[in-house]
Amino acid sequence: MPKIAALDHIAIACPDLDVALAFWQQQLGLTCSHVEELPARGIKVAFLPVGDTRIELVAPLHDKSEVSKFLADRGGGIHHIALRTPTVDADVQEMADKGARIAQPPSPGAHDCRVAFVHPKSTGGVLLELSTPPANATH
Ligand code: CO
To answer: Which of 56, 103, 122, 127 is placed for a possible disulfide with 11 were both Cys, Cβ 3.0 to 4.6 Å?
Structure first.
């Protein structure tokens, strides 16, 4: 059974990262703590801490990115929520064995985390990320 440690972040897909960042920073007063390009996924992400969790803004680097279809279908919106666990690989294997549909097996993510995604069909309708921070992480 996963040992879920925290609501790590809520991710919002947006067509333009700079436009979205301007809103979250200038109108809500949040501070962007980290921006990172993930070329293997075709995305650029920005993190804004809020209390014990974070907002993750996700924008495409090109029209074949992992958020491109979502943006084309919906224009933007909550893309996934992420729960932190110390053992993503074992968790995903166990969940798959119990019948969960894994949308993406564990692989490298932002902040050098190891992340996997569980399909909305298994979670009640939301794409679920499970994320394990690197051993030296500060959060
Ligand atoms: Co995420």
So the answer is: 56
